[in-house]
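Form P-L/3: holo structure prediction, ligand fe (ii) ion.
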Amino acid sequence: MIVIEPRDPRTQSEGVVEGYEQTGWRWPAQPLARRRHGIAELSGPGDLSRRLPLVRGDLAGYGDKRAIGQLIQIHARVVDEDGAPVPGAMVEIWHCNAAGKYIHPNDDHDAPADPNFYGAARLLTGDSGLIELRTIKPAAYPVPGTGGWWRPPHVHFSVWGRVWLSRLVTQMFFPGEPLNERDAILNAVRDPEARSRCIARLAPKENVLVYEYQLVVRGRKASPGMP
Ligand SMILES: [Fe+2]
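OUTPUT (holo model):
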């Protein structure tokens, strides 16, 4: 029988984050009740990639259609509690453009859109648990109504498990960003070592800055859920 160490709460996001009003609406006010999963929750669906089409591994474009910004690659590896790769996992990725603007109707930040930036991808991990995304580095952006909280550059990830209820939604941060120190979402993870695991490792190559990252789907060192 496989025994998986439970998550350490200090390595996970605190439910309601001071200064971040939306977390009060998103997180339950009462302790969660444990409920046995039934066949409806545990039976799938299988083969997610047939239901959710895969979407490009390139948000940066080519030639005249290149997105503006610093070209980067993100190499993200999905691993289990022992660091073993998870092949065939569906990973969704999205981030804002190099001016801090999302492709989303709710984004009213006064920053220019970039017609050559696509904003989102959906990929499957290969045998080594890896996905590779070519994109541009996202910028910081202000959180409306907070009097000066700017999100540091970050990338959102969603990793689907084998059933719908099994899903990790988290964020990747960039090393050396001064706004990391004061970000309410990153600092909602109280353990400094766990926070440092949310920051990608820079591994520059000849023509592109590569950021390496690990998405840990379960166990004590599971990546923290971040909205
Ligand atoms: Fe964001």
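COMMENT: Strands lie at 71-79, 90-94, 120-124, 130-136, 141-142, 150-151, 154-160, 167-173, 201-202, 209-216.
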